[in-house]
Amino acid sequence: MSLLVVSPGLASGRGVVMAGRRVEPGPGDFVKAAADVRTVQDLARLLRELRRREARQEGASPLTYRAIEAKTGWSRGAIGGYFSGQILAPTDRFDALIRLLGATPMEQGALATARDRVEEQRRESAGAAVPRHLPPVPFGFIGRQAQLAELDALADLAQHRREAPIAVLSGMAGAGKTTLAVYWAHRAADRFPDGQLYVDLRGFDPSGPPMTAEDAVLGFLEALGVPPERLPVRLAAQVGLYRSLLAGRRVLVVLDNAQDADQVRPLLPGAAGCLAVVTSRSQMPGLVAVEGARPVPVDLLTSAEARQMLAYRLGTDRVASELRATDEIVERCARLPLALAIVAARAMSNPRFPLTTLVDELTEARGRLSPFSGGDHSTDARAVFSWSYRRLAEGTARLFRLLGVVPGPDISAQCAASLAGVPVDQARRLLTELTLAHLLAEPVPGRFACHDLLRAYAAELAEATDTESQRSDGARRYLDHLLHTAHAAALLLQPGRDPVLLGRMQPGCVPERLADHRAAQNWFTAEHQALVAAVAFAEGAGYDAHAWQLAWTMVDFFQRRGHWHDQVTTQRSGLTAARRAGDPAGQANAHRDLARAYARLGRYREAFSHYRYALDLFDELADLTGSARTHRALGSMMDIQGRHREALHHARQALRLYRAANHLAGYASTLNAVGWAYAMLGRHRQALIYCRRALPLLRQTGDRHGEANTWDSLGYAHHQLGDYLKAVRCYQRALAKYREIGERYDGAETLSRLGDVHLAAGRPAAARRAWCRARDILDELGHPAAEQVRAKLKRIG
Q: Was domain 34-126 assigned CATH 1.10.260?
């Protein structure tokens, strides 16, 4: 039979016949064609030709997708995508596929180079971050064929851009919902070439509140490459930006451990081509009814699947030799995957133990975790957990119990060291032992998390084993560690801030040493959720000083990152604790910092009320700097509202109080506030005098935010006086400082005023560029000032 030869132009579609003859293609033809490959469709043409050539050489029909699936274990949907050019096969799969199709070593090298070139070009053209956030592939995944098929069908819908499907994997705790979701997500990752996002929403975490939709969306935006200065303030703006970034892309979004539909809805991508996989103990009927989500129940394993899981981990010979004991283990573990995994780990660690020994231990330990039975007695997990716990050395067991006492989604080795009152190196060893015993996980390098059932078990053990004093000492060391480290970090972020008087640390607590501003930012970022949970825990457990002081430490971090809602939550808890303790200083600080968050959210009436409470308390305390800082903040709110005479009044009050207290940092910052108020009242030369006096003092105190504000004030005053060149230079210096510290809103205001200067100087194109940047930032923040900038843009056409 004469056959068609592939020309070097095959991949680009320029021709298929070589010299007008039909002859058998040689290796050199594929190598030449591979050099012309530029797109995934080009690559798919070569794969199809390889498939046909292999069939001709074997004298048979081409390999069917079913046959390739049988040889590789890949889904037929993915295989079809590789040959149609809809999916670029991952490197390992591509190499395996071309070997299966009979490519020679020379052809394999050329085709692999072509595949890498296509992937690189796709990445360059995408121009956006490609997140790969999935946890590691679960070990020893077994069964769930029906659920995998349902998820594959939804991926087909997304792949053909018919809709943005949603799958809800629901079932009891420990049923393996997360394992199923992560396993399938890895299997289907190549069908979503623009990335995979993953978040644990902690919907059923007994240690603290679920993750807010705002925090989850902010995490996704950061993963998608949005810089901190572009992160919006309001949830609606965050969701809008998130969905805009996913539009036209194929991204898999895994929302793990969700509490309810309201927590999930803001995180759904919406764009056709994306797929959301939700896991939850709730069936989420609202999400099914309104959003059309596909319910995918995750029940207990079948008895056959449970035995297969044990055989995979323990070896078929060991299971086959003790079938009765294996069946007893399956029954005692109630076919619960989490329980079976821990039993298997116990058996693997003791290969000489007969399985009947494990059955006896299960029987003896039965009934010790009844509050966490999953709704019936057949799902009791306490016995399983107790095996791993009883094998721990005393120091490791003690740390495990203490982890059940304190809140937070995860913990660092340094914080665990203080919790246990041991050196950091020892804490790392203990955490490693707990991880190896499957009592902890390390989802992020250096941070250790406890499954919610295991945390509940640890808390129960602590209640039964340790004295009240031992538990409270551990909790106090944990809170001391966070508070003293956070206090130092807060002063690094804002060197001119007055410290608060902290209590004496518990023996054994060793706070972390942070070197500089960047280290402080990184620490707050890593401990953000733990700190929020710690404030709620401290307030609920009666550690009143810790509650309000921890809230105090986070103010500047929250303001620079735009976490206004977290600031409201923590300051409310701090205020409650300070009131209960009868601590007027704590109440005054909490009132003021709660007011600052309300002002940023546009809730001016509530903000003003809290500012008045703060001023009254600081006056009673004769705290000059506390009163000055409150007047300064209140004046800023008045300025936002356009009440400039009142703003000047409060700025002068603050300046007077700072001068009386001999407080250089506050005095320097307030010089600018007075200058700005004068500028707003049209007294521009007087504004220049105050702002110029402020600059050298701000540099002396290391207040970069105050320095940026002052350059902005100088820019405005020069503009109003007609000195446009000086105004532009001042605004540019302000913007550079704002970028250094991640301040977004103030930077947008400076950009808006920079555009005003450019327009006044006859540079409308430059004005438009500045206003567009300002508008974009304000839109992302969800701030109404964006409309004012739009009005400016409309006026210049």
A: yes
